[in-house]
């Protein structure tokens, strides 16, 4: 880092791997940093007058162009930031290359690390935000010694939702490969909490009274436990690493190391489903709160099963779908909206149970509103304010607006998923079906002249809905600010 500040930036980037340079430039674009010659596109327009920013994809540019852009930064804070992310991406790349060049010497545990890294979702999920100041990076040390280490540590976290819209760790547990507990703590986020998600986390406001353990304390403990190349184990472990704000290169992700009969490359099963397929039992029954220790142990048992028995054939995962015949799907809910507030959308004279999302990640989440029966669900949907449209599967849905207890406005979709309609609608439904059938026959008797126009309008509608959500997020941010 000091090299960057003292002006020897030329020596830092000269001869650097192009993939590392590409990653650094893309991250600079994402952060919106400007050099002495402007942002990336402005730099291209002045540096390459022939092509300019018409070829702005960093991966399509030469290493010399990428290096020239990085050298155009001269502010100390920018140089410090660039130096940090450059070292992180450089170390990540060196680690990956060492793995590829050491296949003949890899241990069984290291093979699972490699399988994790070869998964198509790895780069997207594990090239994390380690450049942020509140993150810690676990150093690898001597690479040759690290690769021979078979030490493993399984980690699981639970999160609460805070008033500022962030998710923060409230519980964490770590067990070693003998299932001995090495860390088991309740963590005080030291923030105002809007949703404890007690039905999931098992934590309430009372449980945090007198708790002084902070995320910084957990980071210090984890750094000691993961030193000397210890492998971090977890199910979708990138979520736990982001929650803990820890960057660690040596990871076994249990959702990545098994093959599935699903044809989608992006498919990953839940921990519950995977344990049933591999270990023969479910981690928890539906509706039970999570237990970090049980989940951490389950992930470690999956790794031990893979090491001991192979499981090289594709697994058939039992994806049981709960009976939501008298439910509504609520989706594209902004993450800062607590589940309890969602009930305000529905008429007060109906019983409704909001099922909390088990693993809320990213800007939006989904959940279900469960009614007493499909009749009440149908009537409640009819009485919800909002224009009715069809979702991508042809189901009725409404875009609803909701004012939260904080005064903030938000919006999301309520989708009708029940299979039956109320009794008094049966005759109307038959008439409607007959009309639809007649219209269908009329359309089939001649070329469908309006198909292209319908498709175009659907595209416009989809784009407009995306625009509404973007504007709503901006409004929410302004209201919160």
How would you describe this structure to a colleague?
The chain is α+β, with helices and mostly antiparallel strands and 481 residues long. The protein has 3 domains: 2-101, no CATH class; 108-309, Ribonuclease H-like superfamily/Ribonuclease H (Nucleotidyltransferase, domain 5, 2-Layer Sandwich); 327-425 and 463-480, no CATH class. It is built from 17 helices and 14 strands. It has helices at residues 2-5, 9-13, 18-31, 40-47, 63-71, 76-100, 108-117, 122-126, 143-148, 198-201, 215-225, 237-244, 271-278, 292-309, 374-383, 426-444, 451-480; strands at 136-137, 152-162, 167-176, 181-186, 193-195, 231-234, 246-247, 251-253, 327-334, 352-355, 364-371, 388-390, 396-403, 409-416. Strands 2, 3, 4, 5, 6 and 8 form a 6-stranded mixed sheet that branches. A hairpin with a 5-residue loop joins β13 and β14 (409-416). α3 crosses α5 and α13 packs across α14 (292-309). It is globular.
Domain module tally: 3
The CATH class name of the largest domain reads Alpha Beta
Strand content: 15-25%
Structural category is: alpha+beta
Alpha plus pi helix count: 17
Topology record:
Elements: H1 2-5, H2 9-13, H3 18-31, H4 40-47, H5 63-71, H6 76-100, H7 108-117, H8 122-126, E1 136-137, H9 143-148, E2 152-162, E3 167-176, E4 181-186, E5 193-195, H10 198-201, H11 215-225, E6 231-234, H12 237-244, E7 246-247, E8 251-253, H13 271-278, H14 292-309, E9 327-334, E10 352-355, E11 364-371, H15 374-383, E12 388-390, E13 396-403, E14 409-416, H16 426-444, H17 451-480
Parallel strand pairs: 1-7, 2-6, 6-8
Antiparallel strand pairs: 2-3, 2-5, 3-4, 9-11, 9-14, 10-11, 12-13, 13-14
């Amino acid at each position: 880092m000091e090299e960057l500040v003292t002006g020897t930036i030329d020596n830092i980037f000269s001869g650097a791997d192009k993939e590392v340079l590409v990653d650094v430039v893309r991250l600079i674009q994402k952060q919106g940093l400007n050099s002495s010659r402007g942002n990336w596109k402005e730099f291209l327009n002045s540096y390459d007058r022939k092509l300019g920013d018409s070829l702005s994809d960093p991966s399509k540019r030469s290493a010399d162009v990428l290096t020239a852009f990085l050298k155009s930064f001269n502010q100390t804070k920018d140089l410090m930031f660039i130096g940090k992310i450059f070292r992180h991406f450089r170390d990540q790349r060196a680690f990956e290359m060492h793995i590829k060049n050491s296949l003949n010497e890899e241990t069984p545990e290291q093979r699972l690390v490699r399988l994790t890294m070869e998964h198509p979702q790895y780069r997207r999920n594990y090239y994390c935000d380690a450049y942020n100041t509140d993150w810690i990076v676990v150093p690898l040390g001597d690479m040759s010694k690290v690769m021979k280490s078979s030490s493993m540590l399984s980690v699981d976290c639970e999160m609460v939702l805070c008033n500022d819209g962030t998710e923060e760790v409230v519980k964490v547990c770590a067990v070693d490969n003998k299932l001995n507990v090495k860390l088991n703590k309740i963590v005080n986020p030291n923030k105002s909490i809007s949703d404890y998600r007690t039905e999931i986390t098992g934590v309430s406001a009372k449980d945090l009274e007198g708790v002084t353990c902070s995320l910084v304390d957990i980071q210090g403990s984890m750094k000691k436990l993961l030193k000397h190349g210890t492998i971090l184990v977890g199910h979708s472990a990138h979520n736990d690493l982001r929650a803990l704000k820890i960057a660690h290169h040596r990871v076994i992700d249990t959702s990545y190391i098994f093959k599935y009969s699903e044809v989608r490359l992006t498919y990953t099963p839940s921990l519950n489903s995977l344990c049933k397929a591999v270990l023969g039992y479910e981690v928890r029954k539906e509706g039970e709160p999570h237990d970090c220790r049980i989940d951490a142990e389950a992930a470690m048992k999956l790794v031990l099963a893979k090491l001991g028995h192979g499981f090289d054939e594709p697994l058939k995962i039992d994806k049981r779908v709960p009976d939501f015949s008298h439910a509504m799907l609520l989706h594209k809910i902004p993450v800062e909206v607590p589940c309890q507030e969602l009930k305000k959308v529905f008429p007060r004279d109906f019983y409704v149970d909001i099922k909390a999302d088990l693993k809320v990640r990213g800007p939006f989440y989904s959940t279900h509103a469960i009614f007493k029966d499909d009749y009440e669900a149908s009537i409640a949907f009819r009485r919800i304010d909002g224009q009715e449209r069809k979702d991508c599967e042809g189901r009725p849905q409404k875009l609803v607006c909701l004012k939260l207890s904080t005064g903030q406005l938000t919006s999301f979709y309520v989708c009708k998923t029940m299979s039956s309609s109320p009794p008094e609608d049966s005759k109307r439904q038959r008439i409607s079906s007959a009309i639809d059938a007649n219209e269908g026959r009329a359309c089939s008797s001649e070329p469908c002249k309006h198909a292209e126009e319908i498709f175009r309008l659907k595209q416009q509608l989809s784009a407009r809905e995306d625009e509404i959500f973007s504007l709503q997020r901006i409004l929410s941010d302004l209201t919160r600010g």
